[in-house]
Amino acid sequence: MKYGIQLPVQSQSTIYAEPWETGAGPEDLAEVAGAADRAGFAYIAACDHVAVPRRLAPAMSTVWYDPVATLAFLAGVTERVRLLSHVAVVGLRHPLLTAKQYATLDHLSGGRLILGVGAGHVQEEFEALGVDFAGRGAVLDESIDALRKALGPEEFPEHHGKLYDFEGLGQRPRPAQSRVPVWVGGSSPAAVRRAALKGDGWLPQGDPRDRLPAQIDRIRRLRAEAGVEGPFSVGAIAEPLYVGTPTWDVGRRTLSGSPEELAESLRAYRAMGVDQIQVRFRSRGRTELIDQISAFGADTAPHL
Question: Tens of pLDDT along 222-246?
Fold first, then answer.
């Protein structure tokens, strides 16, 4: 079972951001990404919001780094870790624009991109950019189809759909990968179906452990009924973690303990059919977070 991390600093929702992140910046982000790279993490992830309305700012904050710029910056300070958009709200942009940005990122990073996509949830954001919020599911469905073509091997991709229509327009550089993996985020029935039928992986959004088996069974059933074959990565977002015995209040939901105890708890995800877990560590500063990342990679991960 692989493990990845949603990076701190680059998004600062009050749901998960630590207090120290408000004063952090690019150097902290680079150091944390480098630590994850050295510790064997499968991916580092960055979020996507273009603009946050005032009504949501107290909870979401307005700190949301652009994922393409952020992942490109971090590609230059890492060597092997993959670069995941978790998730890109691709319906906010024309597929050719999205393809240009992410193909360049994949090219520059030597083929390390995983394109995570989602429908989005902020109505004002869609309205400001002139995109249909009510129809965002259909927009995402066609965006995935168009991006498959635009991120494929052809220099002059072609797509003819209800929303997007293009041909005879060349884009280089092409992605380094022959097929860029597309992981679909979301836990609604529509999102799970979209992941099963259109994605190479599923990124659940907040499903607790007791909900995952039914969701995973549905994905398998939908793929089997549709005759969809090929590799598919099932993800899960683990509870907050703290490796060792904390000397401060890490919250009642946080899993803590010895590396072996943490691994035993996390292996339950694998038993459900999960292929990769996204982890997040409680911390009071960059140094403590890097220590947690290093300890997890060295002492917990081998037991997964």
Answer: 999 999 999 999 999 999 999 999 9
Under 8 Å between Cβ of 81 and 112: yes
Helices within the chain (DSSP H only): 26-38, 57-60, 67-75, 95-109, 123-128, 136-150, 189-198, 212-226, 259-272, 286-295
Q: Which residues of 240-270 are buried (b: 16+ CB within 10 A; e: fewer)?
A: bbbbeeeeeebeeeebbbebeebbeebeebe
Give the contacts of 282 (CB within 8 A, at least 6 positions apart).
18, 240, 241, 242, 246, 250, 251, 254, 292
Contacts of 51 (CB under 8 A, 6+ apart): 62, 124, 125, 128
**Six-digit token string for 216:** 């995973």
Q: Tell which phi-psi region holds residue 209, choosing left (phi > 0), alpha (psi between -120 and 50) or beta.
A: alpha
Distance CA 174, CA 104 (A): 7
Which tokens is 160 given? 């003819």
Residues 141-152, mean pLDDT to the nearest whole number: 98
Reported as half-sphere exposure (CB side, CA atoms, 13 A), residue 126 has a value of 17
| pTM for the structure as a whole | 0.97
Take residue 74 and report the two structure tokens written for it. Answer: 């971090």
69: helix, strand or coil: helix
The alpha carbon of residue 215 and the mean position of all alpha carbons in its chain are separated, in whole angstroms, by 18
Model pLDDT for residues 270-285, shown as the tens digit of each residue: 999 999 999 999 999 9
Of 21, 20, 90, 78, residue with least CA distance to 49: 90
| Contact between 171 and 154 (Cβ < 8 Å) | no
